[in-house]
Amino acid sequence: MLMTAREAPKLGLGANLPQFSLLVLVNAFVGGMVGIERSILPTLAEVEFDVAGRTAILSFIAVFGVTKALSNYLAGRLGDRWGRKPVLVAGWLIAAPVPFLLMWAPTWNWIIVANVFLGISQGLTWSTAVIMKIDLAGPRNRGLAMGLNEFAGYFAVAVAAWATGYIAATYGLRPQPFYLGVAFLAAGLFLSLFLVRETHAHVRHEAVSPEGGMHAALGEREVFAVTTWQDSNLSSATQAGLINNLNDGLAWGLFPLVFAAAGLSLSEIGLLASIYPGVWGVSQLITGGLSDRLGRKWLIAGGMWLQAVGIAVTGMTSSFGGFASGAVLLGLGTAMVYPTLLAAIGDVAHPTWRGSAVGVYRLWRDMGYAFGAIIAGIVADSFGLTAAVYVVAALTFLSGLVVAGRMSETLRRP
């Protein structure tokens, strides 16, 4: 049965502001859940569990990255097939054990188990929040929508990282810092279950519009192939996303150890751990909308190069000011890249398989956590922390070259 003009949902941020704003808030709580680990888990591994090797310490990031990547893919497929809201709610339910495992885990293996639950939850909740915002925003403000989404998530990561570092310095590493996770979990689940509404009607409406994107009908295997390697724009975005999260894994897992080796206190490490995602989060309020006006390609390439500079600066210094400068540059570069990559995927993919394309992109992007943890851990154990930092900086610079040479502009101007 065809939808009448009266029944047809409207696309755009203004027309969907209440639901869009609610989803921004939900994503802030999603970000907060991962932020509770950002500043203190590497220290917790060394102090409470006597985990010494860098590769072993970074195992929690590798596990998180693999499980999140796979659930990203699942979220896209299930969201296209059964609806977005059930997937969002399921993600919050799966997160329920995480803060309690982090508070009371008797061995490091239980921390790994917590990160399995966290990775699955993050994949389902964050991916679905992204897809729902793309559904609501329509084609004209896609970059701005992604900027607002990623701002909320990563600013919350920054606040949670700072707060847990402060609480740990004041009260101890466990259990007090992880009380925040219980609050984030309760708030996110309540909003998702009772206030968030399904967005499938918006997808169906956009699918019949002339701005719907490429290839109106693709199967699951075709979407995977097109997004991973066949389409030069989608595959260029996918590899950039993977390398971006490879260096984010470095920042998450090794930077706190770099800062500690320089003699910084736990509260200073917590502050530094918050600067990078904080700058990243706030700057996306500008960069997301900027990509709607200037285009996607050169923001992505330039952002990867700026990230490489920020990582290299961190490797060159041993002072709080130097580390803070590197964190600011890394945050700015990531802000140029993160929402713009999602907007580029939305530019190219047709609404009927857009959720699946976002899932494939986020599958490879978050595999970057695992690759980053393995590469950085092996290099750090073999050649030292500084060598690992420089290797990741070089990979990030090369990723920008791939975008510059292979990707074309995806923004379709009216």
UniProtKB/TrEMBL annotation:
GO CC entries: plasma membrane
Domain of life of the native organism: Bacteria
CDD domains found in the cross-reference section: MFS_MdtG_SLC18_like
Hydrolase recorded as keyword: no
Keyword terms: Cell membrane, Membrane, Transmembrane, Transmembrane helix, Transport
Entry-linked InterPro entries: MFS (IPR011701), MFS_dom (IPR020846), MFS_trans_sf (IPR036259), MFS_Transporters (IPR050171), Sugar_transporter_CS (IPR005829)
Membrane-topology annotation of the record: Multi-pass membrane protein
Coiled coil: none
Alphabetized Pfam families for the sequence: MFS_1
GO molecular function: transmembrane transporter activity
Protein name per its UniProtKB record: MFS transporter
Organism expressing this protein natively: Sphingomonas edaphi
